[in-house]
Amino acid sequence: MKPIILNLARDDLKEISEYLSAFGDNPPKKFRKSFESFCLRVAKMPYIYAQYESDQRYRRAVIEYDYLVFYKVEESSGQARIYRVLHGKRDILSLLDSE
């Protein structure tokens, strides 16, 4: 089942794409492929990634360019809901609390 990308995550993806576009065409394409691969994996196996040690409400995956995808698995359906896509050097906990 395809993961649901929530609004904050969509905003994150747009911001990341705009930022990476400043470095040419390849970085945004490489990032997009990495995110799409993540989505395919998590659709088939939603529990594949470990819970985030600093906030157990989320599971966390690392994708291209040190970006982190934070998601939860809906227990009733087993479907992944993507909450945020953030660079690892950002203040992750404060940004997760703002969701």
Describe what this molecule looks like in 3D.
With 99 residues, the chain is of the alpha+beta class. It has a single domain, classed as 2-Layer Sandwich (YaeB-like fold), CATH 3.30.2310. 40% of the residues lie in helices and 22% in strands. Strands 1-4-3-2 form a 4-stranded mixed sheet. α1 runs antiparallel to α2. The longest helix has 19 residues. The radius of gyration is 13 Å and the shape is globular. 25% of the residues are buried. The model has no long low-confidence stretch (mean pLDDT 95).
Summary?
40% of the residues lie in helices and 22% in strands. With 99 residues, the protein is α+β, with helices and mostly antiparallel strands. It starts with a strand and ends with a helix.
In the CATH scheme, what's the topology name? YaeB-like fold
- Series of H and E elements: EHHEEEH
Tally the helices: what do you get? 3
Low-confidence stretches: none
Can you tell me the CATH class? Alpha Beta
The CATH architecture can be given as: 2-Layer Sandwich
Order of strands in the sheet with most strands: 1-4-3-2
- Assembly type of the shown chains? single chain
Q: How many structural domains?
A: 1
Average of per-residue pLDDT values: 95
Strand content: 15-25%
CATH superfamily: RelE-like
Count the E strands: 4
Instruction: Report the sheet with the most strands, covering strand number, pairing sense and barrel closure.
Output: 4 strands, mixed
**So what's the overall shape?**
globular
Radius of gyration: 13 Å
